[in-house]
Amino acid sequence: MTINEVQDQIIEEFSQFDDWMERYELLIDNGKDLPPIDPARKVNDYLIEGCQSKVWLYPEFDGTDISFTADSDAIITRGIVSLLIRVLSGRTPEEIMNADLYFIDSIGLRQNLSPTRSNGLLSMVRQIKLYAIAYNARVNK
Amino acid sequence: MIDVDRIRSDFPILSEKVYGKDLVYLDNGATTQKPRIVADTLTEVLTRYNANIHRGVHRLSDIASEEYEKARETVRAFINAGSTDEIIFNSGTTAAINNIAFSFGERFVNEGDEIVISALEHHANIVPWQMLCERRGAKLKIIPMDDNGVLDLKAYKELLNGSTKIVAVTQASNALGVITPLNEIIAGAHSNDIPVLVDGAQGIQHGVVDVREMDCDFYVFSGHKIYGPTGIGVLYGKRKYLDLMPPWQGGGDMVKSVTFEKTTYNELPFKFEAGTTNFPGAIGLAAALNYITGTGREAIAEREAMLLEYATTKLKEIEGIRIYGDVENKISVISFLIDGIHQYDAGMVLDKMGIAVRTGTHCAQPVMDRFGIDGTIRASFCFYNTTREADLLADGVRRVKEMFL
Which of A23, A119, B57, B381 is the most exposed place for a label (fewest CB within 10 A)? Predict the structure, then answer.
């Protein structure tokens, strides 16, 4: 599936629920299902500082694609990062760099995107894109 | 006795819906909602006599200046200061503490001197002093607290010595709600001729404050935490200190005469009010204080004590709740965690139920560090809250537990 196909799939999953509580329950389920990160990667080098919850994001590059594993001490944040991983993990640096993450808006996470919001969604997206730029530069050197 | 239905009808925002649910506003420690009279007063200033104060010769400027000075008198009376010369308007608690740290520091603090603050302080009563210490080569000393957030007065007395220049403490902890023993702190400092600054950001709205009876040397608070507008605050200082302290910021209104060679500063309180002040805010604040006086400060304190006790009991019935700062002498703030659940998760879900609480470190990271946690859930009540809202909070916490555990 392409990045946009996965985004559309997520949008459809969330569109089943009108109620905010139910959407958050789905996010929480996603958070609980996030595959665990290698504990050795839960170190400051991979920490994205949000104000209120911690997120560890670890990238691996096989020369073609970047894959990500992640964890957070808050489950909702883990749910959010799990969606980002579903959309962006296993993609080429270029795909990630060019990705337009419209699903964030569509499923109502936009309110969490402003720079002062505490869950660090913006920082997560920025960090993922930065990794993509860095690996892309390495490939094209 | 407070007629809570009548009171709530004075606060239009309390009938708002969030996510289609009744708003349960329990974040009063961060900012309080405004009675209609405050909004109306701001509208009146802006639509009927907006003009720069103390500057114009024209009628509107006269009215605005007069209302602004009446607001100063309202504040003076509210905290029972001796003179309006001792009441300085600024943007809020943070500005007030920065002003004192700078101006007092310039005049009185030198290398090797010491500043005493407490372990309960929020960042606004830590960082300005750290900056002062760095500037002047002074040292910051901290009054320690116990596991319930109660300050250690014995340790405090041992901190005071000939090098101590000022003691700056909060009236109540914003993160825990614990009230500080101001009488003992002020008496201890004064017996060593040391002035005391009381940070009233979490104190002024919860009961009667009389700065002369308290005998503090400085008292500061923010308008928005006592039902007034945002961006207006008060610095009270005893004249004997304010007279000796140099201005903090330079500009209009704080000067008598300016040439390029020398500037003569204006008298108190204008010396500390550089530039065009937030006069609509000051006049709006006076409206809020009059509203509070009309409601009755004793009645407010009584109702808040009842709500605190009720909500604390309700929360304690839930298994796995840990309350931080669970002591008798508290403002109506409950800081807690639910075992096994991150405070951010709890806050996000409570929000979706229409319940507004604050989560995180409450701008008091050292307090959290003291307990080895990285934040709490804070429910802060005030007199317009209800026991039903406390029930909704407890129900919400139960729901959170079901969702995450």
Answer: B57
Does residue B398 contact residue B209 with C-beta atoms inside 8 Å? no
Which 8-state DSSP code applies to residue B118? Answer: E
- The pLDDT tens digits of the residues spanning B41-63 come to 999 999 999 999 987 789 999 99
The shortest C-alpha distance from A62 to chain B (Å) reads 34
* B342 in A contact zone (CB under 8 Å): yes
At residue A92's C-alpha, the angle toward residues A89 and A98, to 5°, is: 95
Domain range for residue B338? 4-30+296-404
From residue A8, give the alpha-carbon distance in Å to each of A82, A103, B181, B351, B395: 15, 7, 59, 27, 35
Residue of chain B nearest A77, judged by CA positions = B345
Is residue B182 domain-shared with residue B67, that is, in the same domain?
Answer: yes
Q: How many domains is chain B partitioned into structurally?
A: 2
**B52 vs B209: CA distance, rounded Å:** 31
Look up the CATH number of the domain holding residue B229.
3.40.640.10
Return all residues near B59 (Cβ < 8 A) that are at least 6 apart. Answer: none
Q: How far is CA B348 from CA A118, A132, B27, B397, in A?
A: 11, 30, 14, 11
For the segment B139-158, what is each residue's pLDDT rounded down to a tens digit? 999 999 999 999 999 999 99
Instruction: Note if A111 is an active site residue.
Output: no
Helix (H, G, I), strand (E, B) or coil at A16: coil
Total domain count for chain A?
A: 1
A60 touching B, CB under 8 A?
Answer: no
Query: Tokens 């920025």 label which residue?
Result: A126
Q: Are residues B249 and B325 in the same domain?
A: no
Q: Give the pLDDT of residue A49.
A: 73
Out of B19, B345, B360, closest to residue A75 by CB: B345
